[in-house]
Amino acid sequence: MAFPRIALFAAFVASITNAQSANPGVGINPDAQGATDDTTPSTGPNGLAQHRHNNQRLEPPFLALENVTHISITDFYNNIGSACQQYDSYFQSASSTYNVDAVILAVIAMQESSCNADAGGPTPGLMQVSCENYPNGQCTDSIQDNVDAGTKYFKTQLDSADGNALVAFGSYNGWFTADSGLNNGKGLTDGYPCSAEGQSNGVPQNLDYLHQVLNGWFMGLDVYGDDSWIGTYQCDQSCSDGSKC
Ligand SMILES: *[C@@H]1O[C@H](CO)[C@@H](O)[C@H](O)[C@H]1NC(C)=O
């Protein structure tokens, strides 16, 4: 009776597979390379994760910010982004100042600090942005200053990347492209965050950053909770035990 055994095995594999993917129900983004209906550990509706091949240089495909697929800010606040809702007025204000959709800002705050305005570190606050980006170049206790500083930094990166949202989101986490001079001009590679040069720059870049933001939070998935399977590097920011980031 081979057949029932095969069927059982198939059902077992399917149950594992299901735990490692989710269909956010937004459809494939037609402007994103390598996009899939489901978010999986390595891709999803906003595509990408295709731009680092075998430790070769980072060459992100172009995706305009206006063409990034995402859930509405209301859906975000009503579900996984509930911790961010109390800061909505700050996101809305920065949104009008810098012309960046408020849901983009709320998602950055979620990824960066889980929307904890008291988060510390060298790049503090909701947006985890360094003090040099604040008005007057100095950190303040103002949440609005923090959100403005993060938004301004993001917008500056977007403009200098000729509108490529993938480069701008990556830059927010310290990613860099081949023209930056870092890593012998190669752009961010898998081996860089934990290399000697990478470690001399402080906290290693999170090699799952783009994927977590674009195919996780923007899809309404809980990247730091039930959907922590999103990503293939599972960075622990320690560079120990074989972690690449
Ligand atoms: C956004 O996507 C549309 C439809 O694919 C495309 O025509 C447009 O050029 C894109 N916008 C930018 C700024 O690339």
Automatic annotation (TrEMBL):
Keywords: Signal. Residues 90-174 form the Transglycosylase SLT domain. SUPFAM superfamilies: Lysozyme-like (SSF53955). Residues 25-53 are annotated as: Disordered. Gene3D superfamilies: 1.10.530.10. Residues 1-21 form the signal peptide. Residues 36-45 have a biased composition (Polar residues). This is Transglycosylase SLT domain protein. It comes from Penicillium frequentans.
